[in-house]
Amino acid sequence: MTATASEGDERIIRESGIDARIALIVQPVLRAIGFRLVRVHLSGQNGLTLQIMAEREDGTMTVEDCEEVSRAVSPALDVDDPIEKAYHLEVSSPGIDRPLVRKSDFATWTGHLVKMETSIIVADRKRFKGKIVEAGENDVLIERDKAAYGEEPTVRVPYDAIAETRLILTDDLIRDALSKDNRARKEAKKRRGEPEDEATEGAENETEQEM
């Protein structure tokens, strides 16, 4: 992955506060080793847990990838030391019901159901549930799951108004996600000149260590 390719598809949904500071530290490290950042989240789970969600450009993320990312970002976090207390580092894949953080994510998962929350009121609401109909240059068209009386069946939400979007787990999503993952893994094996075999990794992987 080149830095140029990554910069051309920057995240449109980003963190704030300490999470944003951590994201600035780990993002260049991830780019350098061929990964892209999905999300950073510091929580009080198990004392204090730093979750770094990442993936390769093709959307895959194996257990070995999680371990590689963990080994790469740990020294950078030690040097900058953005977290004052002891914490657990958890590196994971986005999972099937993943957050959508880039314009390309919305395009990739067009046709699937999402839950969306906006930072400002859009069409008299800040929360939406519906199907992605179209991912445009500046906004995404959502077909409401259950439009209330008097509401338009579809709504256009500007990307810069979106605070959070996550896919809703459905049978169709599971089938599509597993199919995309298998194709991506086979393509990766071809690029590396490895023999093809069935993908054996789970849909969501993670590795954890104590800092």
UniProtKB/TrEMBL annotation:
Residue span(s) of domain Ribosome maturation factor RimP C-terminal: 100-170
Family designation: Belongs to the RimP family.
GO annotation terms (biological process): ribosomal small subunit assembly; translation
Coiled-coil region list: none
Keyword Cytoplasm in record: yes
Biased composition (Acidic residues): 195-211
Pfam families in the record: DUF150_C, RimP_N
Keyword terms of this UniProt record: Cytoplasm, Ribosome biogenesis
Residues covered by the Ribosome maturation factor RimP N-terminal domain: 25-97
Disordered: annotated segments: 180-211
Function: Required for maturation of 30S ribosomal subunits.
One GO cellular component term noted in the UniProt record for this chain: cytosol
Lineage: superkingdom: Bacteria
Localization annotation: Cytoplasm
Protein name: Ribosome maturation factor RimP
This protein's record includes keyword Cytoplasm: yes
Main location group: cytoplasm
InterPro entries: Ribosome_maturation_RimP (IPR003728), RimP_C (IPR028998), RimP_C_sf (IPR036847), RimP_N (IPR028989), RimP_N_sf (IPR035956)
SUPFAM superfamilies per the UniProt record, alphabetical: YhbC-like, C-terminal domain, YhbC-like, N-terminal domain
